[in-house]
C-alpha cells in the first residue's frame, strides 16, 4: 500500500511540475470567473461593469435570461472549452509521461520498488487522470455557484461534468498510453491520439448528418434555410442513405464516443422536470429572439437523445479496457 501511494504521489508531483497543468487550472479559473461575471439588470445583460445588451427579454428575472445563462454553459462552455480545449491541453502535457518513464535511468528507479509492473502501470495511469479532474472540479464549483446566484438554479448535476469529462480524457489518454508504451515515442503517441480523436469526431458528424436526413424525411420535414418546414407527406429516403447510416451505426459500437460523452453533461442537466423547458433550445435561437418551438425543437431533442447512455458509455469503456490491457501487457513483458 505504501509503495502504491508513493507512485501515486510521484504522479501528483509530476503534474504540479508541469507548466501546462497550471495553465489549464488558470484558464479554467478565468473562464469560470468570466462566466460568473455575466449578469442581468433592469435593462438587459451585463458583463463585469459593462452593459452589453439592452433587451427587455434579457432583463433580470425573465425566463429567457435564465435560459440564456444555462445554455451558455451547456451549449458553449462544455463542448468548446471543457470538452475540447481543456482535454487537448491535458493530452499534450500527459502524453509524454509513459515514454519518459520507460527511458533508461528512470525505469530502473521505478522497477526497484517491490511493486508489480501491472500495479505500477495502472497506478501511474490513474494518477494522471487527476490532470483533468482537478481543474474540472474547480471550474464546476464556480459554475454551480454562478448558476445558483445568477439564475437561481441550484443543480448538483453540474458536478457530473467532472466524471464525464474525465472519462472523455481517459478514453483518449488510454490510447496515448498504449501507443506510448508500444513505441516509446511521445510524438507518435500524440499524433496517433489526435488522429483517433479526429476519426471519432468525423464519425459523430457523419452519423448525425445521416440521422437528421432520415428522421426529417420520415417525418415529412424539409429544410428551408435555418427552419424545418412540415410538408405533411413522408419523403422518400434514398437506399444508399439507409445503408450508409446502418453501417456507421454499427461502427459506433467499435469506436469510442468522446463527443457524445461530452454532450451527456447537457443531457443530464437539461432533460429533467425542472429545466425540461430548455431542451432543444439553442443559443442562436435566443440571440435571434426566436427560441425554437414545435418542429425544430422536437427534432433537436430527438437528435440529442437518439442514443442511450449505455450505447454511449459502454463502447468507450470497453475501448479503454482493451487499450489499457494491451498497454499493461507490453509494459509488464518488456525487457528494460
From TrEMBL:
The keyword Ribonucleoprotein does not apply. GO terms for molecular function: ABC-type transporter activity. Pfam families: ABC2_membrane_2. The keyword Lyase does not apply. GO terms for cellular component: plasma membrane. The chain crosses the membrane at residues 20-40, 67-92, 122-146, 158-180, 187-205, 312-332. Keywords: Membrane, Transmembrane, Transmembrane helix. Coiled coil: none annotated. This is ABC transporter permease.
Amino acid at each position: 500500500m505504501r509503495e502504491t501511494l508513493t507512485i501515486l504521489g510521484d504522479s501528483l508531483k509530476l503534474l504540479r511540475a508541469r507548466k501546462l497543468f497550471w495553465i489549464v487550472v488558470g484558464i479554467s479559473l478565468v473562464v469560470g470567473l468570466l462566466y460568473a461575471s455575466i449578469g442581468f439588470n433592469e435593462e438587459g445583460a451585463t458583463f463585469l461593469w459593462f452593459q452589453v445588451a439592452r433587451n427587455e427579454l434579457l432583463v433580470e428575472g425573465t425566463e429567457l435570461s435564465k435560459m440564456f445563462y444555462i445554455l451558455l454553459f451547456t451549449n458553449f462552455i462544455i463542448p468548446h472549452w471543457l470538452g475540447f480545449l481543456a482535454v487537448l491541453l491535458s493530452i499534450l502535457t500527459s502524453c509524454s509521461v509513459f515514454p519518459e518513464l520507460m527511458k533508461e535511468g528512470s525505469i530502473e528507479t521505478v522497477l526497484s520498488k517491490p511493486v508489480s509492473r501491472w500495479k505500477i502501470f495502472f497506478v501511474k495511469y490513474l494518477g494522471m487522470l487527476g490532470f483533468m479532474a482537478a481543474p474540472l472540479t474547480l471550474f464546476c464549483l464556480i459554475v454551480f455557484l454562478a448558476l445558483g446566484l445568477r439564475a437561481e438554479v441550484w443543480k448538483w448535476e453540474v458536478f457530473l461534468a467532472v466524471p464525464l469529462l474525465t472519462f472523455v480524457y481517459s478514453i483518449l489518454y488510454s490510447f496515448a498510453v498504449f501507443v506510448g508504451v508500444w513505441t516509446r515515442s511521445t510524438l507518435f503517441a500524440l499524433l496517433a491520439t489526435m488522429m483517433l480523436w479526429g476519426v471519432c469526431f468525423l464519425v459523430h458528424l457523419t452519423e448525425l448528418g445521416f440521422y437528421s436526413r432520415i428522421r426529417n424525411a420520415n417525418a415529412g420535414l424539409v429544410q428551408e434555410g435555418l427552419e424545418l418546414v412540415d410538408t405533411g407527406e413522408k419523403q422518400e429516403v434514398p437506399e444508399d442513405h439507409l445503408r450508409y447510416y446502418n453501417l456507421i451505426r454499427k461502427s459506433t459500437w467499435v469506436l469510442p464516443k468522446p463527443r457524445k460523452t461530452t454532450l451527456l453533461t447537457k443531457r443530464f442537466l437539461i432533460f429533467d422536470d425542472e429545466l425540461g423547458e430548455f431542451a432543444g433550445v439553442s443559443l442562436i435561437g435566443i440571440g435571434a429572439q426566436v427560441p425554437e418551438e414545435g418542429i425544430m425543437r422536437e427534432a433537436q431533442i430527438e437528435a440529442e437523445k437518439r442514443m442511450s447512455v449505455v450505447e454511449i458509455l459502454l463502447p468507450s469503456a470497453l475501448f479503454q479496457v482493451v487499450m489499457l490491457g494491451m498497454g499493461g501487457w507490453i509494459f509488464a513483458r518488456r525487457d528494460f
